[in-house]
Structures are given as structure tokens and as C-alpha cells.
Description:
The structure is a homodimer. The first copy, chain A, is an alpha/beta fold and about 375 residues long. In chain A, about 45% of the residues lie in helices and about 15% in strands. In chain A, strands 2-1-3-4-5-11 form a 6-stranded parallel sheet, with helices on both faces. A 4-stranded parallel sheet of chain A has the order 7-6-8-9, with helices on both faces. In chain A, helix 2 (about 40-45) packs across helix 3. Chain A is elongated. The relative contact order of chain A is 0.11. Chains A and B meet through helix 4, helix 5, strand 2, helix 6 and helix 10 of A and helix 5, helix 6, helix 11, helix 12 and helix 13 of B. Chain A binds a DNA duplex (30 and 30 nucleotides) through helix 2 and helix 4.
Amino acid sequence: xxxxxxxxxxxxxxxxxxxxxxxxxxxxxxxxxxxxxxxxxxxxxxxxxxxxxxxxxxxxxxxxxxxxxxxxxxxxxxxxxxxxxxxxxxxxxxxxxxxxxxxxxxxxxxxxxxxxxxxxxxxxxxxxxxxxxxxxxxxxxxxxxxxxxxxxxxxxxxxxxxxxxxxxxxxxxxxxxxxxxxxxxxxxxxxxxxxxxxxxxxxxxxxxxxxxxxxxxxxxxxxxxxxxxxxxxxxxxxxxxxxxxxxxxxxxxxxxxxxxxxxxxxxxxxxxxxxxxxxxxxxxxxxxxxxxxxxxxxxxxxxxxxxxxxxxxxxxxxxxxxxxxxxxxxxxxxxxxxxxxxxxxxxxxxxxxxxxxxxxxxxxxxxxxxxxxx
Amino acid sequence: xxxxxxxxxxxxxxxxxxxxxxxxxxxxxxxxxxxxxxxxxxxxxxxxxxxxxxxxxxxxxxxxxxxxxxxxxxxxxxxxxxxxxxxxxxxxxxxxxxxxxxxxxxxxxxxxxxxxxxxxxxxxxxxxxxxxxxxxxxxxxxxxxxxxxxxxxxxxxxxxxxxxxxxxxxxxxxxxxxxxxxxxxxxxxxxxxxxxxxxxxxxxxxxxxxxxxxxxxxxxxxxxxxxxxxxxxxxxxxxxxxxxxxxxxxxxxxxxxxxxxxxxxxxxxxxxxxxxxxxxxxxxxxxxxxxxxxxxxxxxxxxxxxxxxxxxxxxxxxxxxxxxxxxxxxxxxxxxxxxxxxxxxxxxxxxxxxxxxxxxxxxxxxxxxxxxxx
DNA sequence: GCACCTTGTGGTAGCGCTACCATGATGAGG
DNA sequence: CCTCATCATGGTAGCGCTACCACAAGGTGC
Lengths: 374, 374
């Protein structure tokens, strides 16, 4: 890692007398063994709950452990224990804030379990093929795949072919062939739509996400279902295609706001597009939320850094990623030829976060809507 | 990334004498050494960025590392390296995107060095006093302080009094009593202003950051210096006070845009406020950058997620935080009574990132300006 | 010319723990 | 009584890496 910087590292002298290497501190297994009048091996057995230790010996050891306040050294344990789990986190180019949340969860859990996490960018699909088998050869046993990679069947297949364990995080739909951690996208979009309807809106616009990601379709379906259930008509003109990017959101919002009469609320499939919608509304001198309600999805950082802050759906990204790490660890441990490719599915709870971008329809709009009906 | 090199690992090591303990062998430092035709020690040096390695050797080793996809074993590292360091990252409430970048850098470096990183929110200053000594008693040896905490002398003093090592990241000015990692805020703001002037602008607005942070003042000074050097007058009406928040940016931008004649460019002291300025400009039906240039500072994720993407100053936040971790680790290791409170200062390189929010002044504005001069 | 650095490199000895034998003790079966 | 499985335990050899020298090669300075 060479960064273009100059640093003043003049200090190199300092001849301290090496106290860290041996010195004081931290009782070791040998200390315990001495105190319990047995060998380190026996202590190790007790710690690891092995069977073949006499009850009396075990008690002695336990006693010594308590007396010395001994805590086994994690690092040494996993070093000696051999097989350290290595997991790769592949990513294409998700939104940066999504990725950082994602990393936090994975890194934290990996550190807790003393698992090696390798973070790998994986730009192009053709390249990925070679990359994956290289990683597997290099000792990587599992792969965590955030969107949009989690929807790429060829990557999934490649991992399986190489003998790796794949866990997709946040795919729209789970296929049984691999593990997945997700939220119920359909239900979340449904809930949000219900929320908007509950505010009194009837003319609600929707911006679809990137059509290549399964989640986009599911969110749209959730929206549709709630609208239909409420007996509201869904005009094609009030549904715009986006790509999950801010820019695509601007284009889509522009289109929706130009419809006559305009929607009193817009539900965008992610926060970037919702933020763009707010910007477009402002450009038209519409107040958010008084003139128009705008809701997003994902609760990325953007949602709370713009004004008004967005009402959105919070995915527990960190927890989801942590869960993915756990799942790989588990799958690896019980990797009998049989259960190998089972593919556990976990659905986690999302949350509708209400902030300042939603409100009931304005009187003017209501009036307009009322008159329009007649 | 270089592909096309097949992995020659297995053919190279014919004997395969290991394999006893581990089934799936991850490449070790010895494998790399063999591939790079040097000793494991040299590889270790390269990995740890030590100085005394010839450039050619370093390159060879780096090459071998890449080829083998080698990843150092953290467990072994911390075992051999001695005690495990514990560092706290205290934060008040910086912008979320800043924080997430910040965390990434720290987490990554901490994980790389097997340092235990404790992330601690520290809302109120009175509370902080107790918190710090509690953490030190609990075995925390170092503290990383992002803005705005890095400007709080009482926190710094408290850490020193408790015997902890403090490193401020991104303070405006370094005091010798503690470590600091920063960029040259003044120079960066100066450069950006020069850039804007170079585009042909003369009537340039500025939005100041939170006055409690030293960096705000430095950025303002950099702006002033460049303006004066170019012989441009600085109207008080074209300088607005902000707080580094999106919302404060909206208020400030509104004020600046209402000035008659309005500025043809606005330089905001951070990206959040710049983004807000773009939004306000749009609300007034001003095109960015054709009608007005808007520049930010920090290059947080927001800068590239809105449209147009912001021209801004990129601080290597991640690298800076990583550097802070390194500095604490080093300071701790050579913590002789003498060198203890030395307080190393590191200044890192920033970069002016040009994107799509700047352009020369429009003809209309130029004309206006020209006529105004007469 | 010989002390002295300085610089790049290699060798060795562990860090604390566990895998894998090897060893004494036991008891059961012949 | 002697074999042979079955315990309970000990010894040894690393796991992968880094701290600490040692050492050779190339300067300086006088």
C-alpha cells in the first residue's frame, strides 16, 4: 500500500528492553498447568471440554484457571488450531454508503470470530470467473455477495463449481442453491405504499429501480399490491423507470412531475432516486412534504443528509452481512459432502423509518383531486 | 489486475511436505519468500512497510504476493507480535459520510494489524472526562479523534493526563502536544479558489463551515488569500456562515443567491453545504454549472452521488485514519518515558477532484459583470 | 589503512496453543 | 500370567509470523 505522501518517520532508535515478548502479563496455559500440577495438554483438554480427563484433574485445572484469571489467547488458538476460515467479500460497484455499512458488519463479525475477511473488487464478469477459482485455490472457502453481484447467476455458478460457499446478501429472491440473507422486499414496499396511502394520498407515483436487479421487480410488485388492495388505479404514466442512480432518478422524477395532474406522492425504489426526486420537486418550487410526499428505500446515509430527511425503509445491512459471515462459518464446519450445498435462507426484519419527507396531501391537491373525480 | 499468469504454486513446490496439519493450505510468508527468491524476513518487512528494503526487492515481493494471492495470517501476526493493542475511536457527531469513511480506514488498518478498535460515541464534553479515564483503566492505550473532537483542547488534555496517546485527525492546526494527521486546509482552499478564478469567475461566494472547528477558519483564509492575490474584492455579502450541515447550506446558499448581482460561483466549505447550494440553485432555475459554478470540500460520498457531481477537494480520509492507527501503534511500542508525548505530525496530500459542477461564467453573467464594472 | 557508521538481507528463536503420537496405567479376555 | 484394547496423561513439533541479532557490502572520516 503505497500512498503518495511523505511522512517523517525519523524515529528508529529506541532500544527498549523487550518487555512485550515475554515480560509480565497474561497467564498462559503453562502457568495454569504448573498451578494445577499437570501438563499444558491436560489444561488444553479441559478448556476444550474433551472427554478423557478424570473428574478430579478437571476440577484442579478449573480451579487453577479461576485462580489465575486465565483467558486463552485467541490468536494462538486459531494459529495452532490450523484451519483458519477465510471468506471473501466480492463487490462490483454498489453505492458507496451501502458498501461501507456492508463492510462494517462483515468486518466486525469476522473479527469477533477470528475469521479472515478478504475484500475483493470484482469489476467485470469475465474476470470474475478466473478470480473466483484463484481465490478458492488460495484457500478462500466462502463468498459474500452484495448487490448487484448477488443477482448474477454466473458468479453463483462459478463459486459452486469451484467448491466455494456462496451467500447472497439482499437478493430479491432466493434460489435454493446457495445461502441468502435478505429482507422481504415485496412486503417492505407494500408497507411503505400502505403508509403513503394511509396519509391520504391517492395519486402516487413510483420509480422503479435497475431492472437487472431482482429486488427492483419485487419492490414494484409490493407497490402494486398495496395500491390494488386500496382500490387505487395505477396509471402507467405514474410509473417511471430508473436505474438506482441519482441521475436516473432526476429523469424519472421530471417525467412524473410533468404529468397532469401531478402525483401528490412519489415512492422511489431507493434513496438516491428519492433524493433526486426531492431536488426536482424543489426545482419546480414544490415544497416537500407539503406539496408532495417523497419516500425512499434503503436508508442509506444520503437519506438523512439531505433536507428534508427522507422517510424510507431501513434494511439492517450490518446485521445482514454479519449473518452472512455466520452462515458461511456454519456451512463450512458441517461441510459433509451431503449438506454441502444446502443453501440456508434467512429473512431479516426491516423497518419503516419516518422522517420529514412525507405528509398528507395538501388542500390544494386534495381539492384538485376532488374536482377531478367529478 | 494482471491475469493470464497461471498459478504455478503447486508445480513449484514439489515436495508438499506440509499438508499434515492443514488440508487447504493458504499461502504463507514462506511461499511468498520462495517465489520472490528472498527470505521470509524480507517479505515481512515489505508487508509491514519498513524502510530498509531495496526498491527492486520490494517490487519482486509485491509481485509474488499478488501472484499467490497471499494474505498475512492475522493470528500468527498478533501472536508473534506480542500484546494486543486497544484503541478507541471517539466521535461526537461529524457528518455521517465523513464518519463512515473514517471508520473504514480505522477498521481496516486495525484489522490488518490485529488491533482491537473500540468505537465510542462521546456526546457531551463533561461526560468525556470520566469516559476517557475509564477507557484508559480498561486497557485502551490510544485515542483517535475526528472533527470536531480533535479541536477540543480539554479532551486532548484529559487523554494526556490519563496517560493515553491521542491522535487528532483533520484538525485545522496542529499543536505539538499530541499526534495529528491532517491536510493543509489553507492550501487546499487556496488551490480550489485559484481553480475557480482560473475558470474566469470574479464574483465568487463562500460558505463558511462550523465556526467552532479550526478547519473552517483555515479554509476561509485560503479563500481570502487566493482572492486577494488575484486582486478580486471580497464582498461581505458574498460570504455566508454555515454549520457544515446540509440545512445550514440551504440557508446560506439562499442568502448568497439573493444578492444582486448574484455570484457566478460559490465555494462551500464542505460537500453537504455544496450539495445544498446546488439544490437551491436548481430551485431558482439556475443550471449548474452553466449558470453557476458550485464547489465543495471533502469529497464525501454525497459529492458523487448527486447530479451534477461536485468538483471538490478530496481528503484521503481513509488513509488518514489508517495513519492515525499506525501512529498510535508505533507510539505505544516505543513508549519510553522520554518519547512518550512527542506528538508526531503528519500532513497528507489532498487532491482537487474536478467533476461536473464547475465551468466558466456564462456569457450573460460575464456581460453583466462587464457592464457592472463601468 | 582502520575504525566507524549505514543499508539490505538472512538466521534463529520463540509467541501460546493444539494435533499427533507415545507413554504409563488400568481392566478385560484368553 | 500375559496379551490387547482402553483409558488418562505427557512430550514434541509445529501453526505463521515477527523481534532481535548477525553479517556482509558499501560508504565516510581521519
